[in-house]
Amino acid sequence: MRVRVLFFASFRDAAGRAEETRDLPVGSRLVDLWAALSRELPHFAKFAAAPPAAVNCEYVLLETPLAEGDEVAFLPPVAGG
Amino acid sequence: MFLTRNPIDLAALVVGARPKDGAVCLFVGVVRNESGGRETVAIEYEAYGPMAESEMTRIAAGVSNEWPGARLSVVHRIGRLGVGEASVAVLATAPHREEAFAACRAAIDRIKKTVPIWKKEIHSDGTSEWVDPTKTVNARV
């Protein structure tokens, strides 16, 4: 299945791109996607645990299973205001 | 509850009070000229647009629910802002001031915690860095 992954702020800088489409095995969870990203991107490997994440614009738990067409974003520490 | 790339129109926000409102409480966050002892000349704000707007709307609804009678309007600006420019405005109106103050305070506190917006401080020496409130020494950003 394919999901769209978005990168913002420091994560975009680290990834060198704002978004990508990624093929994942059916049944993959958010935490599996984070593990894959951590293997590829040294910046992400530095994190002790996966950061907060959103699927289709809502905060969700890392155990959440992903589905075809999901829009996924791992979020750096927010700093609005 | 929306994002804008243009200067925030504070006067237009305040006009939104209802006839039953006796109190209008407005919080405005503005770009400060220093952070942690370093001079700041500008801040670049970035948002996960659709999620930021839905999260601000969710927060406003939650606050209105907790302080019945209070109504919220929230605007956050994105893009590059100079010192003194308004980055966020939270307007709370209510029949009485207690609810207006409390709702306004609760809304801005929650917005800072969960709305997916990021800021990069631009320093006078040309360097810049993404602000990480979880690592800020005085935890006040």
Helix coverage percent of chain A: 25-40%
Give me the oligomer status: heterodimer
CATH topology call of chain A:
Ubiquitin-like (UB roll)
**Cα shape of chain A:** globular
List the helices and strands of chain B in order.
EHEEEHEEEHEE
* Percent in helix of chain B: 25-40%
CATH superfamily caption of chain B: Molybdopterin biosynthesis MoaE subunit
**CATH structural class of chain B:** Alpha Beta
Per DSSP, the total helix count of chain B is 3
**End-to-end Cα distance of chain A:** 37 Å
Q: In angstroms, what is the radius of gyration of chain B? A: 16 Å
Number of domains of chain B: 1
Query: How does CATH name the architecture of chain A?
Result: Roll
Query: What is the count of DSSP helices of chain A, taking H or I runs of 4+ residues?
Result: 3
Shape of chain B: elongated
Question: How many β-strand stretches of chain A?
Answer: 5
Instruction: Estimate nothing, just give the exact number of structural domains of chain A.
Output: 1
- Largest sheet, strands/sense/barrel of chain B: 5 strands, antiparallel
Count of DSSP E strands of chain B?
9
What is the residue-mean pLDDT of chain A, rounded to a whole number?
94
Give the gist of this structure.
By secondary structure, chain A is an alpha+beta fold. Chain A has three helices and five strands. Chain A has a single domain (2-74), classed as Beta-grasp domain (Ubiquitin-like (UB roll)).
Task: Please explain how this structure is put together.
The complex is a heterodimer of chains A (81) and B (141). Chain A has 81 residues and is α+β, with helices and mostly antiparallel strands. Chain A is 27% helix and 25% strand. Chain A has one domain: Beta-grasp domain (Ubiquitin-like (UB roll), Roll). In chain A, strands 2-1-5-3-4 form a five-stranded mixed sheet, with no helix packed on it. The model of chain A has no long low-confidence stretch (mean pLDDT 94). Chain B is α+β, with helices and mostly antiparallel strands and 141 residues long. Chain B has one domain: Aldehyde Oxidoreductase, domain 3 (Alpha-Beta Complex). In chain B, strands 3, 4, 6, 8 and 9 form a five-stranded antiparallel sheet that branches. A four-stranded mixed sheet of chain B has the order 1-5-7-2. The longest helix of chain B is centred in the middle third of the chain and has 18 residues. Chain B is elongated, with a radius of gyration of 16 Å. The mean pLDDT of chain B is 94. At the A-B interface, helix 1 of A face strand 4, helix 2, helix 3 and strand 8 of B.
